[in-house]
TrEMBL record:
Similarity remark: Belongs to the FPP/GGPP synthase family.
BP term (GO), one: isoprenoid biosynthetic process
One Pfam short name: polyprenyl_synt
Range of residues in the leader sequence: none
Cofactor(s) listed: Mg(2+)
GO MF, any single term: prenyltransferase activity
Keywords: Isoprene biosynthesis, Magnesium, Metal-binding, Transferase
The name this protein goes by in its record: Polyprenyl synthetase
Entry keyword Chaperone: no
UniProt keyword Metal-binding, yes or no: yes
Cited InterPro entries: Isoprenoid_synthase_dom_sf (IPR008949), Polyprenyl_synt (IPR000092), Polyprenyl_synt_CS (IPR033749)
Length: 346
């Protein structure tokens, strides 16, 4: 089984579980106020689709470390997915994105009713509610108290790192000059830990993994997580809107300080560098200027460099697979996952 097959299989199982979970939650919320039923439906609709990588990796980390109780780990994995969507809803507000997965973002959905402030306010709280529901799923999953507390502590450790990364990212977007090391720091804290390390670690802890295994998970997952972000940066500029379900111009218009942008400034000739510094991050830049920015990033070699770096990071991470699990089936899945993050189209 490839990582892509594993993700598709998990996504179907998670959607079935979440359909049942949200049905119960809507019924309970309806006893308080009918409007809450619709709001929970908006949140559930937002969770549908997507790759569900983090939920799947929670299960994979559990299985790779000897876990057998799929009925117990599935709610935990869905809780991890709800945390992911909580963060995405807030991230959409910060980035002022109007679409996610081919649908309106939550704040845009609500803004259509009573304006931007109303939409942002509702979306923030919808995201918060998602986080509260996530904790409920994890804490009621049936694992021992000791393992559950360890898993939640590890989860919070990584959520805190994600928060720090997001705070740095917001400030870095206002800096004219930003170093490669600055971007590496943000991407490690905002993305790498939370995308790969956190879910694998939570699953492994619930399976009873020892500290040595958790350390090797981190050595595997940080380079793979950074490769995931490099691929995201490339898709954010060169990706197909039809396949990704999101804009391929928002990183440019918002002036996101990505690996791709930093390398473009380093490799571009003087004229192209001046053009990037003048128009990258200008919201009213016309289509031809956005197109030229995309061309510069390709012609100067930044796109190819970023892609090759992603492959090198994946190769580095794969060295630790055999130290995470001795089961060949799960070794192959972890290796396939590493390849998937750099070869995906969405």
């Amino acid at each position: 089984m490839t990582a892509n097959d594993y993700l598709k299989k998990y996504s179907k199982e998670a959607d079935r579980f979440l359909n049942s979970f949200f049905l119960k939650k809507r019924r309970l919320a309806g006893r308080i106020d009918p409007d809450l039923v619709n709001i929970l439906q908006v949140f559930q609709d937002y969770t549908k689709g997507g790759k569900k990588v983090r939920g799947a990796l929670t299960v994979l980390g559990y299985q790779a470390c000897g876990g057998k109780d799929i009925k117990a780990i599935l709610p935990v994995s869905c809780g991890i997915e709800l945390f992911h969507n909580f963060l995405l809803i807030h991230d959409d507000i910060i980035d002022r994105d109007k679409e996610r997965r081919g649908k309106l973002t939550v704040h845009t959905h609500f803004a259509a009713k009573r304006g931007e402030h109303y939409g942002n306010s509702k979306a923030i709280i919808v995201g918060d509610v998602g986080a509260f529901l996530a904790y409920e799923l994890i804490l009621s999953s049936g694992f021992s108290k000791e393992r559950t507390l360890r898993a939640v502590a590890k989860l919070n450790e990584f959520l805190l790192k994600t928060g720090y990364g997001q705070l740095l990212d917001i400030d870095y977007d206002f800096k004219k000059n930003i170093s490669w090391d600055d971007i590496l720091k943000v991407r490690t804290y905002k993305t790498a830990y939370y995308t790969i390390t956190m879910p694998l670690s939570v699953g492994a802890i619930l399976a009873g993994a020892k500290l040595e295994v958790l350390n090797n998970i981190e050595k595997y997952s940080i380079p793979v997580g950074l490769a995931f972000q490099l691929a995201d940066d490339i898709l954010g500029v060169f990706g197909s809107i039809e396949k990704t379900g999101k804009s391929n111009t928002s990183d440019i218009s918002e002036g996101k300080k990505t690996f791709l942008y930093a390398k473009s400034l380093e490799l571009a000739n003087a004229e192209d560098k001046n053009f990037l510094q003048r128009w990258y991050g200008v919201k009213d830049a016309n289509e031809s200027r956005v197109r030229r920015i995309r061309e510069i990033m390709g012609f100067c070699g930044a796109q190819e460099y970023s892609q090759n770096l992603a492959y090198d990071l994946v190769k580095k991470g794969k060295k630790y697979v055999a130290m995470i699990t001795k089961v060949r089936k799960y070794q192959e899945l972890l290796e396939s996952l590493a390849d998937y993050v750099v070869n995906r189209e969405k």
